[in-house]
Amino acid sequence: MRGLETTLLFCYGGPSPVPEQSRRQSSLVPGDANGPWAGGSQDSAAVGFVSEDEYLEIQGITREQSGDYECSASNDVAAPVVRRVKVTVNYPPYISEAKGTGVPVGQTGTLQCEASAVPSAEFQWYKDDKRLVEGKKGVKVENRPFLSKLIFLNVSEHDYGNYTCVASNKLGHTNASITLFEVKTTALTPGKGCIAGKDNENASYRLAAMLKNN
Sorted alphabetically, which keywords does the UniProt record give (predicted)? Predict the structure, then answer.
């Protein structure tokens, strides 16, 4: 079902004697107002729930109210019977993380885009309105259900700039801009008191000879 729709769950117990629908405290609403129903997300707290006997109506259902719902029925003859139903709420993607990164020339760089969606999002990457595809020289795309990575195997000056991550499913799409920027590296040079090359080797030999003579 889609978010913001009204959802109706039904729970019926039989035969005679008519089971008494148990009333449990749960994450749906405080106290006993749920009738036989329990369950849902811990964040679903009471909003939009209407319960009457065997029915549980969830008005304007949200993705936070996805989860397992439980109905329990019992009478004086048999042990309580519990049934569970899983409620899945479909919703369009929203990008939860998209951060730029700095990489020196010649190193490996990765841009990462995370998106939550049901069904899972499909990802696409663009630069200057041109789609980047797997197999482009020096570029690798790794896609998972909620995560996409754009990997530069050997960063060049040409690779720096703004990239667009697009996440989409059948309910909609969204995008975010991510920047790959240059980080300068500082070369270390020998200073005073630092001996390099052959001078270093000769100094080592002289030190070894002095120790031996002593």
Answer: Cell membrane, Disulfide bond, Glycoprotein, Lipoprotein, Membrane, Repeat, Signal
Q: How many domains does the chain have?
A: 2
Ranges of residues in the chain with a pLDDT under 50 are 19-34, 42-47, 193-196, 198, 203-214
Tokens found for residue 123: 């990802």
Q: 100 and 74, same structural domain?
A: no
Residues 74 and 115 in one domain: no
Residue range 144-156, pLDDT digits in tens: 989 999 999 999 9
Q: Looking at the DSSP assignment, which residues form a beta bridge with residue 127? A: 130
Question: Do residues 5 and 92 touch, judged by C-beta distance below 8 A?
Answer: no
pLDDT of residue 203: 47
Helix, strand, coil fractions of the chain, as percent rounded to 5: 10, 45, 45
| Cβ–Cβ under 8 Å, residues 129 and 113 | no
Q: Is the model's pTM score more than 0.85?
A: no
Q: How do beta strands 147-152 and 161-169 pair?
A: unpaired
What CATH number corresponds to the domain at position 82? Answer: 2.60.40.10
